[in-house]
User: What shape does this take?
Amino acid sequence: MKIESLVEKVNIFLKLKRHESAEKLIRFHLSQTHTPELLNLLGVVFLDASDHENALDLFQQAITKDEKFQEARVNLAITLCDVGRYQEAQEVLSSGSRVGFLNNKLSDAHLATGMSYQHNDQFAEAVLEFKKALQLNPANHTARLAISRIYYQREQWNHCSIELESLIKAGEDTQEVRRLLGLSYQNLGRIDDANAMQVLAN
Assistant: This one.
C-alpha cells in the first residue's frame, strides 16, 4: 500500500478517535518495512492521543533513520513544545536545514491551534498557543493580532496595548490595530494618546 493511501485510512481512524485501530494498521506495515515515514505516521497517532512519550520516541526514530526528514523534525518540535520543552524544540529545528521555514511552519501550527481554542472560548489555552507561535516567529503578525484581540476582550488593556504597539512598529498599522490601540489607551487613562490614535484610525 502506498503511503498516501495509508495516511488517508489513518486520518479516518483519527477523526473517529479510533487510535488503536490506526496503530494496528501502521504496525502491520512496519512489520514489513521499517521506514521513517511509517514511524512518523505512528508518532502522529500517539500525538493525537496525547501520548507524548511514545510520540517523541517515534519521531526521534524517524529522524535517526533519515536526518533530512523535515516532517518528522517539525512533529518532534511540536511535541516538545506541547510538553513545555521549548529549548529542545528550537535545537531540533536548528539542527535541520531550512531552519526559517521550519520555524514558520511550526509557528503557523500553533496559530491554527490557538484559533481553534479561541473559537471554543478557551481563551487561556488560545493565548498560550499564540505565545508559542510568536516565540518561534516574532513576525507572525496574525498571531500577535489574535492575542491582542483576546487581551482586549478580557480587558487586559496594558497587555493589549503592548502587542498592538509592536504591530505598528512592524508596519502593521491597520485601521483595526489603531482603533483597538486607541480604545486601550482610553481605558488606561492615556487620553491624549487615545485621541491621537482615534484620529489616525478614522
User: Anything to note?
Assistant: The chain has a mean pLDDT of 88. The chain is about 80% helix and 0% strand. The domain at 1-97 is CATH 1.25.40.10 (Serine Threonine Protein Phosphatase 5, Tetratricopeptide repeat). Residues 182 and 195 are 7 Å apart (CA to CA).
